[in-house]
Structures are given as structure tokens and as C-alpha cells.
């Protein structure tokens, strides 16, 4: 979260300080799931292993602890997995496997090996995703916004869905995941418990789907687009999605200019072109080369730092993404 805020602040700063020479590129990028499943896992089932909860009311909005709705969350999670198109088949078994009543403790009922074997046979799947709990915590906070004299009251809804991943050939779960994230509301617009649990179900499904299936995420890059004809022509290529053309123009500019500043800008742009063409090691080399032309405290240094941060993140993700997408026979570059 802090990295994302830093990136946004840097982009805003460039938007005000350098409207002409620095351009922002926004695009959807495929990101790896938190868990890499075996490639032979093609059919999965989502099972509702959550304890039962009292019927949520439309007339009550609770501060403090709540338990999510198992049926709603299981259905939303199965739908999110189906929408990802990562598995050949997604089965939903939203009938409660757990006959206990939810309490405030964090107790989770594991599935036995016999249960897992029976469910995988009956449902005809390779693996089970057991939705075990959804913990919800509503906390009142006061936030200071710029321009306001007094703090603004809000409610922070922390959501923690718990998922166990089972294989019929294992005694214990392959993995248990429990991502944590938050929703927030103005205090006077906080939804009732009934409405809130629907939001929580959809939000939990979103969080859990990213744990087990690759997902698309909006991301940003920046590049230099002004100062000479070659830069402007290359920017046209970028707008048209012609990265080979842009790369050729930047490479030509890098080779024939003696100015360290221009070489640095061209090298930073060449790193971006290499990344967009899937050549991450080459992108790293161009950024390393650009560093020797970048002056301390300069605009080029800001762009270089942002580009290096984004490339480092992508290089960490890529091996996992390559493994996860291997089931489709994709030949992802480097």
C-alpha cells in the first residue's frame, strides 16, 4: 500500500512539474496468484465449511465483530474463479458442511481426509477450496482531511477470509490463506448488517480469487516523450502500441547523441520498451546503463527510481507467473 501511494504521489508530481517531457502509460498487467497450484489441477470445487450465523438484519449496523455469510461468500468466490477462466471447471457446493454456530473465537473446523476424498469423488474435481471463516471487524475512526477543521468520522471494516486448499492425496491442507484488507464508510452512511455482509462476500471473493488464480491489475509506467523529434515520434509509436518501432527510435537516439542527459532519457525509455516486449533482463541492463547518466536530484533520477521500482516488482513476479500460466502452454518471454 505504501509503495502504491508513493507511486501515485510521484505521478502527480510529474503531472504538474513536467507536463510535456514525461508521459504516463497506464495498462492492465497480468499478476501471479499468491499460491502456485500444480498444473494438472483443472477442476476445483468451492465448499462452504463456515459455521452458521444468525440472520442479518436490515435495521441494525453493528460496530465490533461480525461473521461473514458462508453461502453468499462461497457463491461469490466460485463466480470470481469462473470469471478468471484459469480453471477448466469450477463447482460450487454452498450447502453448509459445518453445523456449528459461529462464535467470536477463531475456531476453524478442518476437513478430514475421508471428507476430502468423498467430496472430490462426488463433485468430480481435482482439488477443494474450503471456505472456513470470514472474520469482520467494524471499527470507528476519526480521520483528518485537508481543509476540514474537525476530524471526519468513518467506519473501517476489516475483512479476513480464511481458505484451506485440499488435495485428496494429502492428509492435511496443502495451504491455508487468510488475506486481510479493508473497506471504509462515512459513519452516517455505514450499511446495515444485511447489506454489509453482501459487500463483505463480494470483497472476500475478490481477495481469495487473487490468492489462487492470476489476475489483471491496472499499473503505470512513465517515459520521456519530448525534447527532440525522435522522442516525439517514438511517443506516437507508444500510443499506437508499436513498441518495436519506439525501441528502434530510442536506440537510434541513444547511439547518435553525445549529451549524457539525452542518453539517460533514451536508456530509461529503452528499459520500458524491453519490459513491454517481455525482455526483463534486457530492461534491467538498460536501467543500469541509464544510471550513469542520471544527475542527483534531477527529473531523470525521479523517473529512473520509479522505473527501477516497477521493474524490480515485475521481475519478482515473473517466475511465478511463468509457472502458473504454463498450463496454457504460454511461452512467456524471460
How does this structure look, described?
A hairpin with an 8-residue loop joins strand 5 and strand 6. The protein folds into 2 domains: 143 residues, Alpha Horseshoe (Serine Threonine Protein Phosphatase 5, Tetratricopeptide repeat), CATH 1.25.40.10; 171 residues, Double Stranded RNA Binding Domain. It has 9 helices and 9 strands. With 334 residues, it is α+β, with helices and mostly antiparallel strands. Helix 2 runs parallel beside helix 4. Strands 2, 3, 4, 5, 6, 7 and 8 form a 7-stranded mixed β-sheet that branches. Strands 1-9 form a two-stranded antiparallel ribbon.
Write the layout of secondary structure elements.
Blueprint lengths: L1 H16 L4 E10 L11 E6 L15 E4 L2 H15 L4 E5 L19 H11 L3 E17 L8 E15 L8 E3 L3 E6 L6 H20 L2 E10 L4 H11 L3 H14 L3 H17 L3 H12 L7 H26 L10
Parallel strand pairs: 2-4, 2-5
Antiparallel strand pairs: 1-9, 3-5, 5-6, 6-7, 6-8
Helix pairs in contact: 2-4, 5-6, 6-7, 7-8, 7-9, 8-9
